Amino acid sequence: METRFHSIRHISERCTGCINCIKHCPTQAIRVRNGQAKIIKELCIDCGECIRVCPTHAMRGMYERMDATEKFKYIVALPSPAIFGQIRNLEDLDYVTTALKRIGFDDVFEVSRAAEIVSEATRKYMHSNSCKYPVISSACPAIVRLIQLKFPDLCDLVLPIKQPMALAAKMARKEMVEKTGLNPEEIGIFYISPCTARVTEIKNPIFGEESGIDGAIGISEIYHQLVAEMEKLDKVEPIANSGLIGVSWAIDGGESAALMSSHYLAADGIENAINVLEEIEDKRFKRLHFVELNACHAGCVGGILNVENPYMAKARTQILRKYLPVSLNHLENDIIPEDMFNTNELKPVSGIKLADSLAESLAIMQKIKDIERTLPGIDCGACGAPSCKAFAEDVATNHAKESDCVFKMRDKVFEYAQKMGIDEKD
To answer: What is the pTM of this model?
Structure first.
């Protein structure tokens, strides 16, 4: 069976077996067994929360290094809008784009350019008769995977228009082929990523289509080299072609504000996003048209592969916007091209498979319920599972023993002591 690529790796030598990661994982995708954390790949959405909370840095985000670009004749950087908020006292986007060329890229195509087109397409889509409210943004891959896994009934509400990252890759490759005369495969397109979820999205696109991106490089990987080159610049090349709308996608609420509607909700942080999705599932929002959810606090500027404090980066982005025009990129002919829509529908995904047959699965589900009834229900995490329910699932599927629960073990010890005639007080 094919295993989906994940951009988070566990480093066993650094792991001390603490339970910080299991208590913060939004999909209960981590267990601690024999003093080591283990990621359950079927449940992981690559949100990066485990990286954020691990005190020993035993979780690491994976991405390409600059040497991955060497096999291409012409290398193009696709910087996320989040990169601009990482730079202090930035007033001109061309300082960043020019410095990217200085550190090894032949050309630069900002993802914020595509974001402006996606914003315009979303406005038109939401005024069409085919739209179901509330429309949920598809911009954050971690949120979309969360919906597939935990909120399958909401899949048909997710915006069916391509993410800016994928659209930017397509636009960049076409533009660079015309500019250089090279074959498409000779041009390397590399996304400069703020988070692990987008690294995974490039390798395993959610909608099943090729991303058009040859690799992802973390912002933190090139940050110090980039800043050093920026300090040397006497003049810049006029490369950047983004406006306020595109750059605003880096922060929470930026995508929503571009819709020019007041009937929207924007929430940041994975726990807040889950709360909102639960309320949508319960149909508590009556007049809501658009929902923007970001797994990271403050939006993409809070991604785990960034360098700066997310709220400081957000403040810088807000200041930077006053130097920018509203928008520099628009749909051709004022219509949404068919190829801007995802070819495939968003489908729910199953978590851990209990058994091969329905009868066996139902029997295991009943066993899980029976075991859970015998547990204390305090979700202490001492057993290495994030909750008593998760522990019951582990026991029922033979991934843990009931004695792993300290309370069950205590009861067994007391029972054994009574049989041996030992008083509890002794």
So the answer is: 0.93
